[in-house]
Amino acid sequence: MLNAAILLREYEAGETNFQAENLAGFNLAKADLIGINFAQANLHSAVLVLAYLNRAKLTKANLTATKLSGANLSQADLVGATLRDADLHGAILQGADLRSADLTLANLLDVNLIDADLRHADLAGANLTGACLRGANLREENRHYVANLRGAVLRKADLRGANLTGADLARVDLRGANLSEVTLRGADLSGADLSEANLSGALLTEANLMQANLRAANLQNAKLERAVLTEADLASVNLQGALLSDAKLTKAHLARANLTQARLGRADLSRANLREAVLQEANLTDAYLARTNLTNADLRDAILTRAEISSANLTGALLQGCTLPDGRISD
Question: What InterPro entries does its record include (predicted)?
Fold first, then answer.
């Protein structure tokens, strides 16, 4: 009957195929198992702490509640694997294939997921605090490969350059996360907490950010065309140079926001709060500003050509050099 000691002896002797074996509860901590075949194996509650599983084949393996903290799974094949409630604290999954893997409620604290393929992976409720996902692929593909990150914790995670096209990030905790240059086209970020996150240069075209918390976030030069930001909290946000054409910002909170040189053509800012916001040199051509609060806002040299501002509150606003809706330049 196979046990941990026999498995290690056989592997040492050159045997790598342990496909579909029952290895539940095996203690293989710190074991060198590079290139091993554990496809469809049952590793429920196994101990693989600090194990070397580089390029291991774990396709459809059962790794529920498995202890993998500090394990090296770089370039491992984990397609369709079940990692529900697994402990992967500090594990290395660089370049790993995790397509369609179940990572719900998994502990991925400080994990290395650089260049990992996470399309259609289920990360609902997973803890990704401090995780590095630079260059990871979580994009939607033909409405089939959609990563689910609902309720996941990605606080201070590094997602620089990651592809999250169409990803489900509703209500996700991304406080202080680094999302610079990330692709979030069409992603669902409704109700997400992105306060103090770095989204500079991020692609958020057609993203859903309804009621999201972006307070004090950095969105400099971000692309937000046709994005939905209804009732979003954007207080003190940096949107300098951002592209917000056709964006929906109804009832958005933009008090003290920096919108210098932002492009807001045809944007809907009705009932938005832009009190003390800086809109110097911003382009608001054809923007809709019905009942918008622009009290003490800085609109110097802004372009308001054909903008609807008849019911906007401009008390104390700075308008020097501003192009007014009728084409006149304010003095």
Answer: 5peptide_repeat, Pentapeptide-BTB/POZ_domain
CA separation for the pair 199, 223 (Å, rounded): 10
Strands (E), the chain: none
Distances (CA, A) of 18 to 2, 84, 192: 10, 21, 42
Q: Which residues have a Cβ under 8 Å from the Cβ of 27 and sit 6 or more positions away?
A: 4, 46, 47
The whole-angstrom separation of Cα 39 and Cα 60 is 6
Phi/psi zone of residue 39: left (φ > 0), alpha (ψ -120 to 50 degrees), beta? beta
pLDDT of residue 331: 83
**Residue-level length of the chain:** 331
In this predicted structure, what is the pLDDT of residue 144?
55
* Among 151, 196, 194, residue whose Cα is nearest residue 169: 151
Question: Which 3 state secondary structure label does DSSP give 77?
Answer: strand
Q: What are phi and psi of 10, to 5 degrees?
A: -65, -40
pLDDT tens column, 129-168 = 999 999 999 886 655 556 788 888 999 999 999 999 988 8
Task: In whole angstroms, give the CA distance from residue 171 to residue 159.
Answer: 17
Distance linking the first and last C-alpha atoms of the chain: 90
3-state secondary structure of 114: coil
Judge whether 201 and 178 are in contact, CB under 8 Å.
no
What single-letter amino acid sits at 305?
Answer: T
